[in-house]
Design goal:
By secondary structure, the chain is mainly alpha-helical. Among the domains are: 78 residues, no CATH class; 109 residues, P-loop containing nucleotide triphosphate hydrolases (Rossmann fold, 3-Layer(aba) Sandwich), CATH 3.40.50.300. Helices cover 57% and strands 4% of the residues. It has 19 helices and 3 strands. Helix 2 runs antiparallel to helix 18, helix 7 runs parallel beside helix 9 and helix 9 packs antiparallel against helix 10. The radius of gyration is 23 Å and the shape is globular.
Length: 416
């Protein structure tokens, strides 16, 4: 997958576009009315919609954007803004449908399809994102990037045969391996029984290449270590992991002493009997969140997938909203304000519950990474959960390959 896309793009699209809602709680701005009727010029109407959105007038923005798209369904900017607006309200089904329709109106060209499919994937509508990729490829609009994205989507769906087919097509198209870590992703699509598999040669070649970026080569190293682990050559796996981690440390320097000092300071700030847990708000009676927390490859995805097999449980993947909301409340000085907490809870609840069929239980699977780990466990998790939400016991399994629910395999359609 593209470096940083899965996390950073989702945070940008889901959280930053939600500021119009969250700032109402945190900053409590005075909204000044703006006229919606601005004539028939589509571009002028879109500029008005942008102003309304920046001013926090969500409903007026939505109505105006829907009018623009009814008149001009190929207006890409209006579709994108409407999708972000709907996403900010947790209406991910509708947001994804808006961008899928826009992509089809625009002819499913590679760049548009890539942009729309990434948004839809990050909105957890992988089936629709995969469908868009297949439609574009069937039209002859295949690129290495589109195949790489499709491979990542099918891997998330557990359709590993289709994922492998797309990853191989991406390699044949000479996709940029410094952006799309395809060799390592390819290794995650199957369990290996011998080291003479063709994938191993690809992994070794890229891992040992001096031309690739350190992060990309490290990703191939992690994939190669998985192969060695699969076949029981644990010493070779450990050696490769050490080398791969050394490559990562070139980009992510880390000091044990500085880390220990920071953790101790945060512990003092939030420790002690005098610590005020803050106001407790009413707990919702009809649904409950389940927080699955752990380090990458510790079994969090497997736990979430297994829980979601139950008809009354919905897995929402990795949501970044609680850390973002906590940061905004802390920065504004309103982390103990009941009204601000209530509004923040409504924002989080909207993103957790979304606009599909309601269920009693929702899973938020947070794979904590590096500095986020201590910040979440020491600071954020000691703050009151918005609206009195109950955090269920975190589930941690022994480190292993993440599992996936059984899925129907589908063939890969290769484009020109």
């Amino acid at each position: 997958m593209p470096r940083g896309v899965s996390r950073a793009a989702f945070v940008f699209a889901s959280c930053l576009t939600a500021q119009a809602m969250l700032y109402r709680a945190i900053r409590n701005p005075k909204i000044r009315p703006m006229p919606v009727n601005v004539g028939h010029d589509v571009n002028a109407r879109f500029r008005t919609a942008q102003s309304l959105w920046q001013d926090g007038q969500v409903e007026s923005t939505r109505l105006l954007l829907e009018e623009i798209l009814a008149q001009r369904p190929d207006h890409a900017d209006a579709a994108t803004l409407l999708a972000k607006l709907l996403q900010s309200q947790g209406l991910l089904e509708r947001a994804s449908a808006v961008l899928a329709a826009s992509c089809r109106h625009l002819g499913l060209d590679p760049d548009t399809t890539l942009r729309c499919a990434q948004f839809i994937r990050q909105s957890q509508r992988q089936q629709l994102a995969a469908q868009l990729c297949e439609e574009a490829i069937a039209r002859g609009n295949a690129t290495g990037e589109l195949h790489a994205l499709a491979g990542n989507i099918y891997r998330e769906l557990g359709e590993f045969d289709a994922a492998r087919c797309h990853f191989l097509a991406a390699l044949e198209a000479n996709v940029n391996l410094d952006i799309w870590f395809v060799p390592g992703a390819l290794a995650a699509t199957q369990r290996y029984s011998a080291v003479d598999h063709p994938d191993v040669e690809r992994l070794v070649a890229h891992f040992r290449s001096v031309q690739g970026s350190p992060r990309a080569r490290a990703a191939s190293g992690f994939g190669l270590a998985k192969v060695y682990d699969d076949v029981g050559e644990y010493a070779r796996a450990v050696d490769v992991l050490r080398e791969a981690n050394a490559l990562v440390r070139r980009d992510q320097a880390w000091s044990r002493d500085s880390w220990g000092t920071w953790v101790a300071a945060r512990s003092r700030e939030h420790g002690g009997a005098e610590h005020d847990a803050g106001p407790r708000l009413q707990t919702p009676a009809d649904w409950t969140p389940i927080f699955v927390v752990g380090l990458p490859r510790s079994g969090t995805t497997l736990a979430a997938v297994q829980l979601a097999r139950h008809a009354e449980v919905r897995d929402r993947g990795e949501l970044p909203h609680i850390p973002y909301i906590a940061d905004r409340l802390e920065a504004s000085g309103r982390a103990r304000d009941p009204e601000a907490l209530r509004e923040a809870a409504q924002l989080y609840s909207a993103h957790l519950r979304q606009d599909d069929a309601p269920v009693p239980w929702y899973v938020d699977n947070n794979q904590i990474r590096a500095l986020e780990a201590a910040r979440q466990s020491i600071a954020d998790l000691r703050r009151p959960i918005p609206a009195g939400l109950h955090a269920q016991r975190a589930l941690t399994l022994p480190a292993s390959d993440d599992g996936a629910a059984p899925a129907v395999r589908r063939p890969c359609v290769k484009g020109a």
